[in-house]
Amino acid sequence: MSIRLALAGNPNCGKTTMFNDLTGATQYVGNWPGVTVEKKEGKFKGDKEVLITDLPGIYSLSPYTLEEVVARDYLVNEKPQAIMNLVDASNIERNLYLTTQLLEMGIPVVIALNMMDIVKKRGDVIDVKKLSQELGVPVVETAAIKGEGTRELVETAKKAAKAAKAPAVHGFGGSIENAVTEIEKLIADVTEPAQRRWFAVKLFERDSKVQARFTLGKDVQDKIEKLITAVEEELDDDAESIITDARYQYIGKLVKDCVKKKKTGLSTSDKIDHIVTNRILALPIFALIMWLVYYVSVSTAGGIFTDWANDGVFGDGWHLFTIGAADYEEATAEYDDQITRRDAWLEAADEAGIDTSALTEQLDAEEPDETAIADAAAAIEADPAAASVVGTAEFEDEDSGEVTTEDVDLATFEETMTAAEPDPADFGVWVPGIPVLLEKLFASMGVNKDGWVYSLVMDGIVAGVGAVLGFVPQMLILFFFLAILEDCGYMARVAFIMDRIFRKFGLSGKSFIPMLIGSGCGVPAVMASRTIEQERDRRMTIMTTCFVPCGAKLPIIAMFAGAFFGGSGTIAFSAYVLGVLSIIISGIMLKKFKIFTGDPAPFVMELPSYHVPTAGNVFRSMWERGSSFIKKAGTVILLSTIFMWFTLGYGWEGGAFCAVSDIDNSIMARIGSVIAPIFTLPGFGTWKSTVAAISGLVAKENVVATFGQLYHFVGEVAEDGSEIWGELAADFTQVGAYAFMAFNLLCAPCFAAMGAIKREMNNGKWTAFAIGYMCAYAYVVSTIIYQIGGLITGELTFGVGTVVAIAFIALIIFLLFRKPAKADSTEGLRRMSVDAN
Ligand SMILES: Nc1nc2c(ncn2[C@@H]2O[C@H](COP(=O)(O)OP(=O)(O)OP(=O)(O)O)[C@@H](O)[C@H]2O)c(=O)[nH]1
Ligand SMILES: [Mg+2]
């Protein structure tokens, strides 16, 4: 017989850390409340018969948020055999509030005093024996992060489960206790003895979900109501607060008896918070940190790795551990100088009336003929006029920009003709790139270079999936930094800082948590909106969260930053700012509509204490996010690239369906051309960019993959990433590129995220509205960027587009500043009857 144990406790007390330790799972752990929003089940490593469920963190068993409902429904309906109640011992008073409720549920409880490492470090002392005696349940000291006491906890819980003895109920005393006992009697017929106490207390609190659970007769209902009102009148408070007070009084006494706190001044955590949550400095500090993160991940370290991945692994090849790279570079520079001298002399010779065309033609040829070159050169050298020709070669110093000139005579020219282009493979340890290896493999297998197999692999898969995988290093670095910021506790502060700003336009700082998760992936981000109590704020958060660039959008940003802005980290950072600004602007605009008006709920997120991020957590989080990206590359993106390869490579030419020689005749080109005109205003009305943007709906990485394929088809030789960037740069201007990037970042997210939106909205109309809003907003913003930006840079002249852009700006300003609609009474204030499924 298997034993089912549940992990319950306050948010951020370490339940998931414990769960991972016990089951070997790799569930997401973050240092802020509200990480887990759905229950997760796993088998205990030490005993496969023990099933452990990780529940979302909750402060109480009231029915106001989705997590509370998820956790509570599980405990009431599925009745685990024992509850392992994790208590953050460093914050024991508040954590015990939930404990007092759990003890009433009629399920055996074992308390785990977690975070004991922090308590000990602080010098506080908790009398565990006494606590256990007063509460009437076993208490185990643990430090989940170090795996201390966790096994003992399970063993104790197993014993408690086998004994199946409900904890002794602690009385509220006085008239409250009398009323609750009376209610217990009234519902004796419809409840099991074990759960009776809990239901009675909930009915006393007028919990609507519990009320709805029973079909009590009118007279019973009246009797209960009478009991409640009597107590309310006596104590001059509402029933719910009466119970809360009673619980805290009990806890106050308990803590006085069992906990000895060491008196200390400001803790380090408080001192840091003084600075990072400072009214004036908080935002600049946050902006600086995020800029640094993007700068390092996209420009410097990330850039180096991405160049390596794009040009090396998915290009010609690379020098292992950069051995020989410097020598190769030197040799290449020398070779380039020789070419400059050669061309300078040839130019002078041409001016002197010597026919150099035969040679230059050969030198520029796609596949130059060695002997033809030698013959042509010999012919030129034999010309009597050649001896007196002197060319002038110009060299620019890369660092100083200083230009030096050098005379080139016939002898030097002859020398340049013998110079051979250095082969990187001759220097150090050369590792050929994947395309080169595949080419060799195909050659050895005798695969036809013009056949479809070769084309599918090289033009389709390598060009598409390779273009995406090239960005993995950058993403891993970004995820690494984000994981550190999350785990140390800083991100929870940012939610607090953001609350001050968000409140001004009607959202609470709670909406920041989904945004934060959204920087990794939109799917969990949309799900994280569950921590928001108010339905309208929750909907608004779902609608705007995907504006934050998720990991999959990073390659798009990195590609455009690389191709158009010299790999600028500032551009990458600006994409992040654009996302946050869009949330703020949308917040203000939407709040003016009747369905969204009203004040946000007060922000009551507790700030976790800072701690040094654990390597395990950081790397797990980095790997979890990164690997899902790699998995996607191997599945969805692979399939899409194959689809794209087919629709780009085949079409109608000369009246027949065949493999096309001109990509403009492909199936995709035809489809794209039909849709493309829509995107003329935002400046990317070509079928290629249209197709790329649409392919992003499947997965955002596809935008890059599709560009990889589109431009790969154009060239004849295998091209590396940066050559694609060159081609790309020829097709867009900087302004156009930025507008296109903005559109892709802001428009409807990928299918997976759209699915999450549909699940969380649980309503077709709202889903359509959310996705429609994102697309419309993206279109408006990219049009403004392109039209107005183009006007400023002089690319565009004043025309219809400008007028439309100005109209768009006027519309946004109107929506931002118009008078808000009046709120509908209290409708939507609290999500009392949410359905957790
Ligand atoms: N010092 C210390 N930190 C811990 C301990 N257990 C967990 N943590 C840290 O506390 C933070 C929260 O851990 P989680 O496991 O995500 O907490 P949770 O209870 O699942 O949180 P929610 O899912 O939000 O309810 C993480 O940063 C952990 O590394 C512990 O015993 N000692
Ligand atoms: Mg958790």
Overview of the structural elements:
- A hairpin with a 2-residue loop joins strand 13 (650-653) and strand 14 (656-659).
- The strands form 5 sheets. Strands 2-3-1-4-5-7 form a 6-stranded mixed sheet, with helices on both faces.
- Among the domains are: 1-264, P-loop containing nucleotide triphosphate hydrolases (Rossmann fold, 3-Layer(aba) Sandwich), CATH 3.40.50.300; 322-426, no CATH class.
- The longest helix is centred in the C-terminal third of the chain and has 30 residues, at 764-793.
- The model is unreliable at 714-721 and 825-837 (pLDDT under 50).
- The protein is α/β, with parallel strands linked by helices.
- Helix 7 crosses helix 8 (193-204), helix 23 (512-518) packs antiparallel against helix 24 and helix 26 packs across helix 33 (721-731).
- The site of magnesium ion has 4 residues, from helix 1.
Average pLDDT: 83
Rg, Cα atoms, Å: 34 Å
**Physical arrangement of strands within the biggest beta sheet:** 2-3-1-4-5-7
Structural class: alpha/beta
Tally of contiguous helical segments: 37
Query: What is the CATH third-level topology name of the domain at 1-264?
Result: Rossmann fold
What is the name of the CATH architecture of the domain at 1-264? 3-Layer(aba) Sandwich
Largest sheet: 6 strands, mixed
List low-pLDDT spans. 714-721, 825-837
The outline comes out as elongated
CATH superfamily of the domain at 1-264: P-loop containing nucleotide triphosphate hydrolases
CATH class of the domain at 1-264: Alpha Beta
- Overall number of strands: 14
**What is the helix fraction of residues, given as a range?**
55-70%
Task: Tell me the distance between the termini.
Answer: 28 Å
Approximately how much beta-strand content do the residues carry? 5-15%
Small-molecule binders here are: guanosine-5'-triphosphate, magnesium ion
